[in-house]
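Standup, Tuesday
Yesterday: got the pipeline producing structure tokens again.
Today: sanity-check two examples.
Blockers: none.

Example 1:
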Amino acid sequence: MNNKMSSLAPDYNQYQLLGLSLLRLLIGWHLLYEGMAKLSNANWTSAAYLLDSKWIFSGLAKWMVTSPSILGAVDTLNMWGLTLIGLSLMLGLLSRWGCIAGACLISIYYLFHPPLVGLEYSKPPEGSYLIIDKNLIEACALFVLAMFPTSHITGLDRFLQKD
């Protein structure tokens, strides 16, 4: 590593850099694939997910579904948000912002479908959760990645830096 790169991440050893970069890539792949799967399915909509919402945002979710224009905007933002955030993380391009946007988006998913006692959803979860689920974990991982960015070393962000 040259002096410029080592001065950018003086506290990262090679294993920390590898671990953080790998986590960024894996989450990026997950979000990119989720977005692309939704974009490639002309019939996909978030309506069923929103209608099944429980807890504090259930009223907001039902309101969004009642308006075709609002639901269309929510679906478009969801599909393209996942896709662009995933690309940002995988390419290491503006990835700090991608991490923050991804953490916020996934936190919204969590708040619309939290795994709390007494809340039952029409679609069974992939596992058994109580308070903590994969959405909360992935959102927290993205917040950590935003605090410990690697894209200025192992991504395209390194080409955007001013000397």
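Example 2:
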Amino acid sequence: MGVAARSITDVMAELLGLLPTGWAIAQSTDAIMALFLLPLAAEIARFEAQAVAQLIEVDPGQAQYLLADYERVLGPDPYGRVATTQGQRQAIASQRWTARGGQSIAYFVGLAALLGVTITISERAVTQCGRAFAGNATCQPTPNQFLWDVFLPTSELINSFCGASQTGTASCGFYTPNPIVPVIVRDAPAHTTPVFHYAG
């Protein structure tokens, strides 16, 4: 962030500079007064270094110490997403912390970017009265109305293995769900049906 903590030497120089002048107070780090000020200078330098380290904590996407506090304030994830890594926890907390609401395609593409996912969404053509031309369908077939095609990056596929899988629990394997999918499913416009396409 461009902010650096001062060293003990820098803090000591400032403390010595603040002392009144006179024969009893020598302006040198070798002086007895400097030895008296050394513990204070060390504590000030330690405090400043810790304060600089805490600057990243204002962003849930980079928070280390305060990440659990962000998650506590935000409450349970309304989309049921379960983060398994520190990076996923940070991404989800950041996305929720900065969410402003909206149901446009650009809004969901931006949300995905906050989660570290690049997606594209295309909208199917809808029927428009008075806009049909010869050779074109006057009305779009019902299943094609109000569909969003959401194109996602490749998902990690975890295949089923003999002796490792159990009946009734992903007997054919499973894939790692994309964290943006439940968000779009829940928050897409009510008349819109999202269809998800994974690359590969």
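Quick observation on example 2: The two ends are 39 Å apart (CA to CA). Residues 59-98 form one domain.
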